[in-house]
Specification:
445 residues, mainly alpha, globular
Amino acid sequence: MNRQTFISGRSESRIRKTQRWIERMWMFGLLLAALLLFCLNLDSPPLLNGGEQTINQVAGELTTTPLASWQWFYPTFGDKSYVEDPPLLYWLIALAYKTGNDSTWITRLPTALLSALSVPLFYGIGREIFPSRQNALFSSFIYLTVLPVVQYGRLAIADSAVLCFVMLMMVCLLRSRRDLRWSLTAGIGFALICLTQGIGLGLLMLAIGLIFIAWDTPRLLRSGYWWLGWILGIIPGLVWYTLPWIEGQAFLTANLIQESIQPFGHSVKITRTLTGYYDYLLEFLKFSVPWLLFASYGLGLAWTHRNWGWAKFVLVWTGVYGGAVCLSLIGSPFSAYSLPIYPALALAGGAQLAAVWNSPRSQSYPRLWVLGLSLMSLGAIAATVYFLLEASGSLLPVVSSSVALTFAIAAILVARRDLQFIFILFWGMYVSLLLLMTSPHWIVS
C-alpha cells in the first residue's frame, strides 16, 4: 500500500511546526538579550535634569489622582496642564509607581521594557521583508548593539518608548500585505505613537508606510477593508486629541498639536545651519560606529535591488526620515528624535552582511572596511589611555579596551576575508555595551 502521500503531508506539517518553533526561540532569545542590556543597572546614575525629572514629577502627581479624574487624560505639572508630551508614558510610569516604590529604577523600567520589546518586533520586520532568516538576524543584532538605541532606550523619555510602537506599526503594516486584518493593529500602533511622542512623529511614520505601500503593494490603497482597519485602530489617539475641543477647550487641542509637530517643523537660522549640520554629523558618526560602515554599503545594495520589497522599505524609511532630520536639524547637536533612523540603517547593514556571508569566499571585501575598523580601534585605544589618566578606578578603560580589541580583531579578519568578523563584531559590541551599562557612566555625551 502506497502511503507516501500521507507521509509527505505529515512531513510538511512537521516542518512548518519546527519553523514556527525556531522563530519563537529566536524571538525569545533576542528578548532575553535585550532585557539584560536594557534593564541592567537602571538606577545609576540618578534621573537627568529636565526630561526625566519632569516626567517623574508629572507621573508622581498622577499617582495621587483618582483614575476617573480629568488629570489622567491631560496630566498637569504643578497647577498647569502639561502639554509637552502626550500622556501614555506618564500613565505607564504612574502605574509602575503604584506597584513599586518611586525610585529611579522604577521610573526607567517601563521605557526599558518597551525598548527591549522593540527588538523581537524589529526581528519580525526583518522576517516580513527579507527572504531568509539570516538577514533578519543580522539586522536584529545590529539594532540591538547600536549605542543610541541602548543608551536612550534606558532613559525615562518618550523618544525611547516610542520605538516599540514604531516597530509595532511597521511589522503590522508589512503583514497587512498578506492579511488585511493586520491593518487594525497597524492603526493601533500609529495611535500609540501619537499618544507617546505626538502626532508629528506619527504622521511622519505613517507617510513612510504609505509611500512604501504605494511603491510596493499599491492594490492595498484601493482596499476599503484595509483603510477601515486603520481608521478603527487610530480611534484611541483621535479621541484623546479631540476630547478637549469637544469639552470646549479648543486651545488645549491646539497646544497639543503644536507641541507635537514643533520638533519636525521648527526653522533653523541660516547663520547656524552649517555649524548645526557639522555638529550633528560628527555626533551621528560617533554614535553609529561600527555599523554605519556596513549600513552605507547596504544602502547602495538596496538601491541596486530597488525592485525588491526589502530594498524599497529601507530606501523609503531612510530617505523620508533622514530627510526630515536633515531639514529640521532636530536637536543640537544630537537628539533622541533621531532614533527612528537607526532601524532602517540596521536593516541595510544586515542585508549587506548577509550578502557578504553568502558571497563566494574568494570575493574580496572593501578596503574601507579594514581602514575604518583599524581607525576605530586606534580611537578606542586612545580613549583607553585617556580614561586611564582621567578616570582611574572606573570601568571606562575596560569598556574602551573591549571595543578596541573587538575592532582590531574584526579588521584582521576582514583583511583575511574571514567571515568570523561578523560574529566578532556582534559579540564584542554586545559585551562592550554590557560592561558600559554596569558602570554609572552609560549616559554618554
